[in-house]
Amino acid sequence: MSVTVRVPAKVNVQLAVGAARPDGFHDLANVFLAVGLYDEVTVTPADGLRITCSGPDAAQVPLDATNLAARAAIALAERHGIAPDVHIHIAKDIPVAGGMAGGSADGAAALLACDALWSTGATRDELLAICAELGSDVPFSLVGGAALGTGRGERLTPIDVGGTFHWVFAVADGGLSTPAVYGEFDRLTAGTDVPAPEASPALLDALRTGDTAALAGALSNDLQPAALSLRPSLADTLAAGTAAGALAALVSGSGPTTAFLVADAESAHKVAEALLTSGTCRNARTAVSPAPGASLV
Ligand code: C5P
């Protein structure tokens, strides 16, 4: 018997970053929006814990115990006195190390899949607590839709979304390390007074009313200067998408994927084509939001 879970990518429509905390993390006002690019994680009983991965970027995915899917299986098994003897297969479609929470998505998906396989009877709150232990973005991968993440991003308040938003994502060559981008944020803001992060009322309104133009005007990412500092060529990608008619452009999370908000599906295809021919990215993908969270298929 196997269990398969489908899980979405995310884009941060607002990522407000506070000063570094004593534990090294940063307090955030992190507005997550799940987008319709999905990984599928299948778990099957096996003699021991094993991970495999398929998809165009499979070679970049770690297949050892650092993979969040493995850590999720181990964490759930430990709590319930079960041996984590599963083969976890990840069908990877979310860009790897791209700032779209692909690794977090696989952690949430593996957790939900193992929970179903082992019939642990874990409550939703228990699953969310394990997600928060695995990483700051993992709880959101479980819930999907849209949510405000506070604390280090793991404390979620759901946000209603009143419409469909169209996006293009430009996938860069190579990844960016999230700790390195936060480190660069610290370097760039050293000696300045970093304000406490707060969600933008205009942005939350734009989501609630499904107003694309208003959302375009309210997108922001405090990690963008740090990502651009580490990867200056991303400025060319942002400019190429904007020149092709995107309503707004920003780095997705810690990058290096760049996100372009567009008016409709037709515009999405035009902007994706232009990005592909611009030579400023490795691939361009279209997707709509919001998308549902991790769910059994
Ligand atoms: O929580 P997660 O394991 O995804 O975080 C990865 C790294 O990103 C952390 O080790 C930290 O360097 C940085 N981070 C941070 N503040 C946050 C979330 C992540 O500094 N709120």
UniProtKB/TrEMBL annotation:
Residues 204-275 form the GHMP kinase C-terminal domain. Its EC number is 2.7.1.148. It catalyses: 4-CDP-2-C-methyl-D-erythritol + ATP = 4-CDP-2-C-methyl-D-erythritol 2-phosphate + ADP + H(+). Residues 67-145 form the GHMP kinase N-terminal domain. The keyword Transferase applies. The active site is at K10, D137. Coiled coil: none annotated. GO terms for molecular function: 4-(cytidine 5'-diphospho)-2-C-methyl-D-erythritol kinase activity; ATP binding. One of its GO terms (biological process) is terpenoid biosynthetic process. Keywords: ATP-binding, Isoprene biosynthesis, Kinase, Nucleotide-binding, Transferase. InterPro entries: GHMP_kinase_C_dom (IPR013750), GHMP_kinase_C_sf (IPR036554), GHMP_kinase_N_dom (IPR006204), IspE (IPR004424), Ribosomal_Su5_D2-typ_SF (IPR020568), Ribsml_uS5_D2-typ_fold_subgr (IPR014721). Signal peptide: none annotated. Catalyzes the phosphorylation of the position 2 hydroxy group of 4-diphosphocytidyl-2C-methyl-D-erythritol. Belongs to the GHMP kinase family. IspE subfamily. This is 4-diphosphocytidyl-2-C-methyl-D-erythritol kinase.
